[in-house]
Input
Amino acid sequence: MGKRCVYCTLWADEINGMNQPLADAVPFVVTSPDSPEIQKAFAESRNWKFPMLSAVGTSFIADLGFEPKPGNYHPGVSILIKNEEGLFKVGQDYFGPGDSYCGLWHFLDLLPKGVNGWEPKYLY
Output
């Protein structure tokens, strides 16, 4: 999830709306390939309130399966648990148009012409 992708931004906007109840249920953080400075400025421009971590200089995003080729990122979610044996991925899914993680697609599907070519933007 980062500044370079309008689709990632759409999912992050929705996650921002769920931030308080989500954080009440489980520790949650958004990770992106952007530097902390870029993350901070972009998050402030969108009024995002969730915590963010930068993966710059790490293989974290690729290790989770969201960077199939260097520099080619895919949005999604991973559920990680930590116990005395280490950190483990116990669940994962990808984000994409029409998925269950962004309700906007389902609202648009109710229109007579459906999504009809609509795509997310940085500014509306």
Summary: The two ends are 19 Å apart (CA to CA). Residues 29 and 51 are 5 Å apart (CA to CA).
